[in-house]
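Can anyone check this?
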Amino acid sequence: GFARERCGLPHGRHHNDSCDMMPHRYEREEHQAQCHFRLVRCQVPGCDTRVQHNRRTQHASLCAFKVVECPVGCGWQGRRSEAASHRAMCDLELVTCARADTQ
């Protein structure tokens, strides 16, 4: 018979987080080109992170480079990584007065 080899993608990662498929040696390259554990570049412009194919959607939803809108509706748009600093100075953000006698 033909020898089988464990796919193991992505190489160098923890064993529990890698592919356990055992394709025949002659099928291994084709399998790895389509393997759900292969590393792919994030699709969000500006992000160079490489993530496992099976986690690309999860990463994209949390990606620091993803463009988000101001949650209070001022119209601002920017990277997720800039959202906290925007909210700190957003004119529509509600703030609580530090004085106890103020309502």
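Reply from J.R.: I decoded it. The mean pLDDT is 89.
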